[in-house]
Amino acid sequence: MAYKPLDSISITDIINLGIPELTATQLHQKLTEIIKIYGPATPQTWTHISTRILDPGLPFLFHQMMFYGCYLDFGPDPPAWLPDLEDAKSTNIGNLLERQGKKFLGPSYKDPISSYPAFQEFSVSNLEVFWKTILDEMNVSFSVPPTCILVDDPSEESQLLHPGGQWLPGAYVNPAKNCLNLNGKRKSSDIAVIWRNEGDDESPVNKMTFEKLRSEVWLVAYALEKLGLEKGSAIAIDMPMDVKSVVIYLAIVLAGYVVVSIADSFAASEITTRLALSKAKAIFTQDLIIRGDRSIPLYSRVVDAGSPLAIVIPTKGSGFSMKLRDGDISWLDFLEQAKSYKNIEFVAVERSVESFSNILFSSGTTGEPKAIPWTYATPFKAGADGWCHMDIRKGDVVAWPTNLGWMMGPWLVYASLLNGASIALYNGSPLTTSFAKFVQDAKVTMLGVIPSIVRAWRTKNCTAGYDWSTIRCFGSTGEASNVDEYLWLMGRALYKPIIEYCGGTEIGGGFITGSLLQPQCLSAFSTPSLGSSLFILGTDGIPIPPNVPGVGELALNPLMFGASSTLLNANHYDVYFKGMPSWNGKVSIKHGDVFERTIRGYYRAHGRADDTMNLGGIKVSSVEIERVCNAVDDRILETAAIGLTPPGGGPENLVIAVVFKDANASTPELNSLKQSLNRALQKNLNPLFKVSDVVPLASLPRTATNK
């Protein structure tokens, strides 16, 4: 569509978008007034249009007319949101800088917006000062405080053993205890969790106070001890992310055990792999997952996976639709063992900061997932990112549709509770109008998304008629986003900013993000996260100089607080450091994404540099997909799985290239084959995976070594 400059738009142009004449006249009058003061093509013009003219009830075509008309000749990276200085001063980081900016930056400190880039650089060059300050601001309490924040021994031996340094040496702590402590961030009557179950749209949202959450977690922790497992044992959770699974998660960590995170969408074979890698001694699950009229078996998948002892929660009431396996116990019987301890505080098991708190999984390139342990420090990285970048604080309500099987599940727990905010959980599909109503009714202030969800909302117009005005900002992660879809998303909440956020399971948070102290551009990052630095490698493998535009594979400074320093099933150094260039005497971390730094200083993600793809926010190796696809039909010789970015940008589509054994023989009808591939992938890997296209080829291109 061709757009006009704002000062060339007529009332008729607005009417032609389906807007009534009287409304069009009023809109045009407001537009004329704004242009008269700010001009037809400045960021300030757009800011006033987005806050004074646009609302979710107007056709999105009109929103696009305003945005693209304003920035017609602006060039790349037009800002969709500008920070206001007074608002910036009230953010967590803005408030910190107003109090201590001159201490950090000296007389050059001006204000939180002007001085933010300098503070980001300070956070990297003064890691000990920065992280001590943030942990103090978050009221993190240690039973034994660290001897210092960071030990970074430059010796060759130490750089091989601890290339990422040693954080909080000597400290003993419990992250779950810090989530439940009553302090300046929370009192017992504050709301800890807000939730609603699918189908209860007309009922008020459910609420759990911190007092009730503490009591529930303590009871589960006591019951866990009755199982007789050794401290440090791994205990899996394979459930939807609801109030019970959050209680269980916190109780496992509080009692000194290790959570094993397994997504509730996984097939039995994938559950088996994760249980074996983690050496889990028990697993929490439920009998069924209810989605609308469908009942999806979960416990039976856990049984088929050959799980250890299962504690099984009934989805409805107290009864089960199936008989439990010998040795497995019901949720009620599990709690019954600890009933005499009800409302008695459980004394948290404080462990060395290097101990494992959680084992999560990320796709590897060999088909087997990487088993990534989070230490007791990692939760504080998640909490700090929420505090610094999403500005999560006491009184906030944080929703992010996810699962404890993915890192954003534990991230949501820690980023909310460590900062005194409420977690908002919807037990149902986030792709529905019911979820949109829950966001309204729960009065969500920070809404996290993945781009695939936003695309579904826009396609189905799920949010129409619901009031999202309580949202202060969005967060977005998991996959590349689309400019128009994110312009639409901002418009649902009266143009609140979207904080793009990218990191990794092994980091426990982000290395690049947006900020409420900087102008935000659609589908782009504005800054490395505080305490992190990154490099874009040129074609020669050498980092492009800082602040110089370019495109290349991403590398990270290894000194990252909370980052994992080991893998359970691979050599950590070989996976993340081997063959990587050094910068200022430190070998950099391999990340695997291709990034661009633009001429205006923003960053954009351009997909993977290796054969790992991103489908609906889930990283998966092409090897895993191809292994399943190769077995679908006897006539298939081999397949290649490709993640294809749509022309307009956004989430990757899965395309399968197929080579048949006999090119002259009859081949399957491609649409039928696509359906068979989908069934196989959804059964054996993940029910969320979907093939968008099947392309037959005579052969696959190969290297000289036949790869």
UniProtKB/TrEMBL annotation:
- One Pfam family from the record: AMP-binding
Q: Which UniProt keywords apply?
A: Membrane, Phenylpropanoid metabolism, Transmembrane, Transmembrane helix
Q: Which residues cross the membrane?
A: 246-268
Kindly give the SUPFAM superfamilies that the UniProt entry links to this protein: Acetyl-CoA synthetase-like
Return the PROSITE patterns for the record: AMP_BINDING
Q: Which GO terms describe its biological process?
A: phenylpropanoid metabolic process
Every copy of the AMP-dependent synthetase/ligase domain together lies at 186-554
The highest taxon in the source lineage is: Eukaryota
Q: In which pathway does it act?
A: Phytoalexin biosynthesis; 3,4',5-trihydroxystilbene biosynthesis; 3,4',5-trihydroxystilbene from trans-4-coumarate: step 1/2
The name on file for this protein is AMP-dependent synthetase/ligase domain-containing protein
